[in-house]
Write a structure and sequence with these properties.
Length: 236
Amino acid sequence: MRAIHRQGVRVLDLLYPPRCASCRQPGSWLCLSCRAAIKPVPEPTCAVCGQPSFHSPCSSCREAPPAFDGLYAAALFEGPVREAVHRLKYGNLTAAAPALAELLSAAYQHRGWDGDCIIPVPLHPTRQRQRGYNQSAELAKALSSAQRLPLYLTALQRTRAGRDQIGLTLEARRTNVYSAFAVRHRECVTGRRCLVIDDVATTGSTANECARTLKATGATKVYALVLARQQMEEYR
Ligand SMILES: [Zn+2]
Ligand SMILES: [Zn+2]
């Protein structure tokens, strides 16, 4: 029954004209005033973790270098982006993914990364069945067509469900995602520069664990591009 309902919502998305994923104003999936209100991560940033820093790499990245070569967010997780991500993630608003992926495209170009392929952060199969889709895969699909980079939707697999990272401390986040991923298709990863896509990053634990897994399978570089960066009080 839930699946039928979800399908119904998608059909409605197609039948009705686009509405802003944030303020719901009709006309586009992200209206001009919401676009104008999007806040980027303040520059300068650390070239590795993407956090605001006058030094690059920042002191955290020097002390404990992450497995990824770069993590960067298209925007801060607030205002219109927060609303839009929430609707994309929990409100079946996959139709807005291409509009949101434009922000990812701009961030990718701004960073000047040289990815060979795009891989979304996977959901555990149980979670994906419940939700009916993976919001990161929807973003990755749209980015793949915009940047003309091959998309490997199933290259990475989530083998442990873990819990939602929301509300967890830095240490708990690391433990929650540790060994949570596995490479399913080595041929997609070995010798490649992988661009991993996620909707939100806070501490970067998920991106780090994906990168660790991909590099253990021979990925030459791993960049993590996320739509929004959520600041965490316990972090820093
Ligand atoms: Zn709007
Ligand atoms: Zn850093």
